[in-house]
Write a structure and sequence with these properties.
Glutaredoxin, Glycosyltransferase, 441 residues, alpha+beta
Length: 441
């Protein structure tokens, strides 16, 4: 997918789907939820493999979101249309002549690498893509090949920016913003690029201050106008992003995201969960609905109920709210029948079940110095799904993981815990690495 035309080789980001088996010809519409989810996937793929293609694809996707899908408020837009000037894909495709005129002597190298021909591969034009033949071009090129190609892509991107753009669906959907929020946090964890963290914090601040009004979470927002009604998908998706932000933000004020997440979780339980643990898509007693809807299976996005249950399990480790463990187990039990009968449609629920059955891993770091940041950088290099990370400059907060753990002089102490049983604290990066090597394979 990352090498195909479904991925925008110039501007980053993925189209909605491919219409062929080679991932070459996309339906050119770009959706926020696809790009938020795929950026998360490529982040984890890079952690597992170290493959730089996955890293560059994640970065390109996040950069696309920041460049083309971000409102001045910090919210993220929903979609870009496929058409411009009445033609699908016109904004994205190239003739060989256009590239030759733009790149001059470098055009031949670019065209050979991105498989550009005079006849084209899409209605007489070219969708840029990378193949095995492209890799031979790379292998035969000079040492500065990557830098040269980056400069050529930037030149074409600048030319493309002057074309008539596809229309932007600029409504801000809270659920899809939650998926993008999590992706940006993961991007910062891996790269240390402050742009990703700043965009994540701005988004969470915007949602908390503008979309969480009168103790209700807005579903849709555009130009100051908010929709009515509350939806499980907004709570489930945004909780997922907020918990990732709490574990990513290294500032002394990071506890605000945990407080906001806990408040949303309590609301969600009251609004959507019945006595049997079933999670409904809408609150009870909606006058505009004949039947109260529910959908516990994954679709184009993860099941919002499963995302909520996953958040409740993690909030149980992070907060002292006694209702979270009860409600999370009740919600998972309610899904157990579907998990057994239709596991292929219940991947998100299966991930929750795996977390429930597995050892719970927590990393708690108190203190504030360069050593702390280097410890976190080392942790984020590794594929360590479902970890809980809690960071504080001084420790001693009311949150359970900081109980009895303080650092009044700023000295760093790191605790690696399994099921709330912690190893002796370590104070150096080398000791931290050694303990991680023992628990993270």
């Amino acid at each position: 997918m990352a090498r195909g035309g479904i991925y925008d080789q110039l501007g980053g980001g993925f189209a909605r789907y491919s219409v062929d088996e080679k991932w070459l010809v996309p339906h050119f519409e770009k959706m926020l939820y696809d790009n938020g989810l795929l950026a998360q996937l490529y982040a984890e793929a890079y952690q597992v493999t170290g493959n730089k293609l996955y890293l560059e694809t994640m970065k390109g996707t996040l950069d696309f979101i920041l460049r083309e899908m971000t409102d001045s408020t910090g919210g993220f837009y929903s979609a870009l249309d496929a058409d411009s000037e009445g033609e699908e894909g016109k904004f994205y495709v190239w003739s060989k002549k256009e590239i030759e005129e733009a790149l001059g002597a470098d055009a031949d190298l670019f065209c050979r690498f991105y498989n550009v021909t005079a006849g084209g591969n899409f209605e007489g034009h070219n969708i840029l893509n990378i193949t095995t033949a492209s890799e031979r071009v790379r292998a035969d090129a000079r040492d500065d090949f990557e830098n040269r190609m980056a400069a050529l892509r930037e030149k074409l991107l600048e030319i493309r920016s002057k074309r008539v753009r596809p229309l932007t669906d600029d409504k801000i959907l809270t659920s899809w913003n939650g998926l993008a929020l999590k992706a940006l946090c993961m991007g910062y964890q891996i790269t240390g690029d402050e742009r990703y963290l700043k965009a994540a914090i701005k988004n969470a601040t915007f949602v908390r201050e503008e979309l969480f009004k009168s103790n209700k979470l807005t579903h849709s927002y555009r130009e100051g106008k908010r929709s009515d009604g509350e939806f499980l998908e907004d709570y489930g998706c945004y909780l997922s992003g907020l918990l990732e932000l709490y574990q990513t933000d290294r500032s002394e004020n990071n506890g605000q995201w945990l407080e906001f997440a806990a408040a949303l979780a309590r609301n969600a339980i009251d609004l959507f969960m019945d006595d049997n643990g079933t999670l409904w898509l809408r609150p009870e007693g909606q006058s505009d609905l004949i039947l109260r809807p529910k959908d516990e299976r994954d679709g184009a996005t993860p099941s919002p109920g499963s995302l909520l249950i996953a958040a409740l399990f993690k909030l149980d480790r992070l907060t002292s709210d006694s209702s979270f463990p009860t409600d999370s187990e009740k919600g998972l039990h309610a899904l157990s029948g579907l998990i057994a009968r239709m596991p292929s449609t219940m991947a998100s629920a299966l991930l929750v079940l795996d977390y429930y059955l597995s050892d719970k891993m927590e990393i708690v770091i108190v203190g504030q110095s360069e050593v702390r940041d280097r410890m976190l950088d080392e942790l984020n290099k590794r594929y360590f799904p479902d970890k809980i990370v809690a960071v504080s400059g001084t420790g001693g907060e009311n949150w359970p993981l900081f109980k009895g753990r303080r650092s009044d002089d700023g000295e760093v102490q790191a605790y690696i815990c399994r099921n709330s049983v912690c190893r002796l604290p370590v104070t150096t990066l080398e000791e931290f690495k050694a303990q991680l090597d023992e628990v993270v394979r």
